[in-house]
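Quick one:
INPUT:
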């Protein structure tokens, strides 16, 4: 087995980004047409009382509810996440996972004009393609550096540490990789808590491939070794690891 070097593509420490004034999240209103059986309105949160939110009462309740969430979203089968000839939906699945985990990750983000107004104290309503626009995984990679901290995200550099914290604390982990070619989509995947049967892949106690859940060209409710160190593929310039309690 090829030894995986966590810095083959280097965990990004992109250029120093100046601190920004925190603003409210950009989230469209939930839409009844946005649901697991639908292929429309994917940038809107879903209205579905059967989808469980992360239960924050205890570490055990957090982990159990996240696994219930993965089971309910059923990325492998749900129409919402199936690839089309034009697109894949890693960003939509990651948004949904985070939304129901009670963590903010954008699937739309404010325009520059809207950000300026918000930072001046002017309230702005999210309106699709007017005050907010879709944000895809390569742009989310950069979003983390500028805005992630203000929404509670903490950058990490170790796969072992982020998997440990996700598993031991019931938190939310993200791997996000940026494409080398501008304008092409990268990839974004949640790192999820381990169970007795579902584990990250380790060698000598170090995590080489975290336990993940993804939409993409292929959809997996859970995987670790199957896609190996996908974030080090030559198509990507860099990747980031972020954790949220």
């Amino acid at each position: 087995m090829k030894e995986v070097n966590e810095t083959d593509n280097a965990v990004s420490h992109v250029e120093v980004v100046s601190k920004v004034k925190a603003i409210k999240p950009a989230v469209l209103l939930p839409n009844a047409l946005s649901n697991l059986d639908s292929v429309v309105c994917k940038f809107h949160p879903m209205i579905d009382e059967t989808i469980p939110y992360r239960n924050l009462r205890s570490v055990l309740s957090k982990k159990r509810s996240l696994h219930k969430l993965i089971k309910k979203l059923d990325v492998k089968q749900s129409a919402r996440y199936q690839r089309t000839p034009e697109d894949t939906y890693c960003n939509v699945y990651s948004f949904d996972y985070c939304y129901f985990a009670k963590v903010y990750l954008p699937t739309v983000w404010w325009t520059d004009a809207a950000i300026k107004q918000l930072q001046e104290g002017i309230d702005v309503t999210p309106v699709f393609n007017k005050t907010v626009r879709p944000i895809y995984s390569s742009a989310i990679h950069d979003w983390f550096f500028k805005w992630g901290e203000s929404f509670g995200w903490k950058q990490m550099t170790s796969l072992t540490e982020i998997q440990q914290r996700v598993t031991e604390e019931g938190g939310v982990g993200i791997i996000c990789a940026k494409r080398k070619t501008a304008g092409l989509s990268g990839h974004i995947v949640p790192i999820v808590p381990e169970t007795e049967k579902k584990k990250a892949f380790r060698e000598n106690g170090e995590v080489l491939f975290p336990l993940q859940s993804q939409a993409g060209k292929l959809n997996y409710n859970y995987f670790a070794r199957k896609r190996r160190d996908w974030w080090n593929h030559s198509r990507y310039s860099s990747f980031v690891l972020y954790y949220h309690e």
